[in-house]
Structure formats: C-alpha cells, structure tokens
Amino acid sequence: MFAGKTVWITGASSGIGEALAYEFSAAGAKLILSARRPDELSRVKEACLQLDGAEGMMVLPLDVTDERAISDATKVARSFTGRIDMLINNAGISQRALCVDTEMATYRKLFEVDVFGQIALTKAVLPIMLEQGSGHIAVTASVAGKVGVAQRTGYCAAKHAMMGFFDALRAEVAKDGLFVTTITPGFIRTNIAKYALKGDGSAFDQVDQNIAGGMDVTDCAKVILAGLHKGKKEIAVGQGREMKALWVKRFFPNLLFRMVEKMG
Ligand SMILES: NC(=O)c1ccc[n+]([C@@H]2O[C@H](COP(=O)([O-])OP(=O)(O)OC[C@H]3O[C@@H](n4cnc5c(N)ncnc54)[C@H](OP(=O)(O)O)[C@@H]3O)[C@@H](O)[C@H]2O)c1
After folding, report:
1. Pick from 29, 31, 33: which is nearest to 1 by CA?
2. Dist. CA 21 → ligand 1 center (Å)
C-alpha cells in the first residue's frame, strides 16, 4: 500500500520518526525526512538506503516553529515527486516540571513545537492534498492527549489540543477523500525525556524510568504502519498500564482522576 507513495515525516532524526522512516522505507515509500539536525537526518537516510525496497529519499531540514521555512520547505517537498501522499506530524518535545515551576515562556515553547508547528505544516500541505483529491495526514499525539498527568501540564494541554484539531480537521476533509489519523503512543523507548523541558525551559536530560521501560520503538513503528495501512482514525500504541488508562478514563473517569492524583 505504501510502495511508491510520497511520505513526509517530521521528527525523523530520532525516536519514533526515525523508526517510522525505516518501516516506510522497507515498504517502498519515497520519503521526505525533516527535523532540525541535518547530520542526524543524513544518518537516517543512509540507514534507510541499506534496506531492501528503499526508494527515493530527501533530507529536508526544518524547524516546525519557523513558519516561513515551512512555506519554503513545502515547495521543496512537493518538487521531490510532484505529490505529497502522506504527512506525519511527529516532531515534538515533552515537559518535566510542575505547573507552579513552569514559566510562561516554557509553555509557549511547548505550544510552538507541539501545536502551532503541526498546525502550520498541516495548513501548508492541505491545499496540495485537496488539489490531488487524496492524502493522509497523521499526528503523533499521545496518551497524554487523553489523560492529564502531573509534571506535564503544558505537554498534556498541547497533545489534547492536537487531538481536537485533527478530529475537527477529519470532519472537514473526509468529504474530499482525505484521511486523518491521530496516534496516541504510551511510553516508547526514545530520547523524549532527555529533551523534555524543565520549568525554566532547559532540557530535563535525565532517564525517565517509564520511558526506559517502555515499548521498543521499532515495534511501535510497526503498529503505527499497520494502523495507517488499515486507514484507522486513531491508533493507540504501547504496552504498559498507561494504555489501560485510556479505557479507564473513558468508562470510569473519576477512578482515573484518583489514580493519577496518587501518581502525582
Ligand atoms: N516516546 C514516547 O514515550 C512518546 C509517547 C507519546 C507521544 N510521543 C510523541 O512522539 C513524537 C516523537 O517523539 P520521540 O519519542 O520519538 O522523541 P525524540 O526521539 O526526542 O524525537 C523528537 C523528534 O522531534 C524533532 N523536533 C523537536 N523539535 C523540533 C522542531 N522545532 N522542529 C522540527 N523537529 C523537531 C527532533 O529532531 P531535532 O532535534 O533534530 O529537530 C526529533 O526528531 C513526539 O511528538 C512526542 O510527543 C512520544
């Protein structure tokens, strides 16, 4: 299903985005790899090219908080094959700080990357997909987009916002033949905690035991590809008790609130 398709992945220099690049590459997709660090993107590109079935590959460095760069990058991305069949809004940063310790500038930084970056890139790509009459937009939200937990007020708010934005977008574009998928990972073993923001906006740079004990990132990417292949509107992926929280929140919200209060 992905063979020959042009797939643009943000946050492709590490973690889930990198693992998705390998899976899409092995499936024969033509990839546009974006993130801020060109060296890391080139490393991922080289690794992709070693895989059987790897097709064309473009490294397109991009900071998703830079609106003008998004506009220019979208033109370059389209020139790669003339199409953009799938956009995976995966770039993101997390948070490790109590609300009382988190500066407003830090909240704004989280929202610039995790919310406005995804919206701006989606808005840039949307007219291309509408013109094509086809396309699939996905976002890596989080279980934190459905459940609020301590030390993540900004991150949970951002991911909740993304669930709302992309659910609403789906309602708008389904009639145009476009698909929208929200992805809600639980704890996945990546560098997310390392770069998470402390209250003053500096990097947490510590091991988070939940992340360290989380799902293998390749397994996560395989689940995501299978879900995208099926055209799922929502993909929940993870292996720990945080995945049960989705179910508890839905059917027993007060129980869930008590559980997360105890954890906090
Ligand atoms: N790991 C988990 O447990 C987990 C759970 C739920 C959701 N998620 C979500 O999954 C997504 C990927 O995270 P990950 O776990 O794979 O963490 P990661 O390894 O830290 O990857 C984050 C990616 O985002 C990119 N990025 C950060 N800021 C950016 C910016 N301003 N512009 C462009 N790219 C930017 C980073 O690349 P550069 O530094 O090169 O720009 C990197 O490629 C995030 O949206 C995260 O919130 C992760």
Report:
1. 29
2. 13
How many Å is the maximal CA-CA distance in the chain? 52
pLDDT tens digit sequence for 50-91 = 988 777 899 999 999 999 999 999 999 999 999 999 999 999
Under 8 Å between Cβ of 137 and 89: yes
Percentage above 70 pLDDT, the chain? 100
Q: How long a stretch of residues is the chain?
A: 264
C-alpha torsion 44→180→82→43, nearest 10? 0
CA atoms 93, 147, 102, 69: torsion sign: positive
Digit-coded pLDDT (tens) for 112-150: 999 999 999 999 999 999 999 999 999 999 999 999 999
Where do the H-state alpha helices sit in 204-252?
A: 209-212, 217-229, 241-251
Query: Does this model's pTM top 0.85?
Result: yes
**Residue 246 CB: number of other CB atoms within 10 A?**
18
Tokens of 196: 């998470």
Q: d(Cα 204, Cα 195) in Å, to the nearest integer?
A: 6
CA-closest residue to ligand 1 atom 8: 142
Q: What are 123's two structure tokens?
A: 């808005």
Q: Known catalytic residues?
A: 155
Which residue type does 69 have? A
Ligand 1 centroid to residue 143 C-alpha, Å: 15
In order of their start, the domains of the chain are 6-263 (3.40.50.720)
- What backbone torsions phi and psi does residue 202 show, to the nearest 5 degrees? -80, 165
Residues touching ligand 1 (Cβ under 6 Å) are 10-11, 13-17, 35-37, 40, 62-65, 90-94, 113, 117, 140, 142, 185, 187-188, 190-192, 195, 211, 214
3-class secondary-structure state, position 113: helix
